Amino acid sequence: MNEPFKLQGLVPDTLQIRQCKITLDQLEVMTDIGFHEYEVGAPQRLLVTVELWLDMALAPADDEPASAWNYDFLRDEVRRTASARRYNLQETLLQSLFDRFAACHGVTALRISSVKPDVYADAHGVGVEISSLAGPSD
């Protein structure tokens, strides 16, 4: 079997991989959310995005699925959390998700957002983002 050509020693230190980001982009979930009387008990569509940065020291040493981050876990946890209870605020749901993912081994930074896409006819959606990152859009 042919081994791939390795550029060992040719990549300058300034171009070494320092982080890995995994993104679950706009997962659609139905959740009982909102504080207006007409929202209570009427599940709404919510688009949830999770971005997490991982410690590269824990990167898989091989190309085996068992060594990789489990994307199903991200998806399942968002769905489970969104359906676990009713929420008045997107912020509360996001905080629950944030706490769950921040506690995972190897996570060094985290950004989670949600958007209610069906609130205003003249807007794509209204949403919230929470993050461990220092700047407004790192």
Tally the structural domains. Answer: 1
Instruction: Provide the spatial order of strands within the biggest beta sheet.
Output: 1-2-3-4
Strand percentage, roughly? 25-35%
Query: pLDDT average, as an integer?
Result: 88
Shape field = elongated
The number of distinct β-strands equals 4
Compressed to H and E, one letter per element, the order equals: EEHHEE
User: In CATH, what is the homologous superfamily?
Assistant: GTP cyclohydrolase I, C-terminal domain/NADPH-dependent 7-cyano-7-deazaguanine reductase, N-terminal domain
Q: What structural class do helix, strand and pairing data support?
A: alpha+beta
Q: Give the class-level CATH name.
A: Alpha Beta
Could you name the CATH topology? Answer: GTP Cyclohydrolase I, domain 2
Termini gap: 42 Å
CATH architecture: 2-Layer Sandwich
Count of alpha and pi helical runs: 2
Gyration radius from CA atoms, angstroms:
19 Å
Percent in helix = 10-25%
Sketch the major β-sheet: 4 strands, antiparallel
Ranges with pLDDT <50 over ≥5 residues?
Answer: none
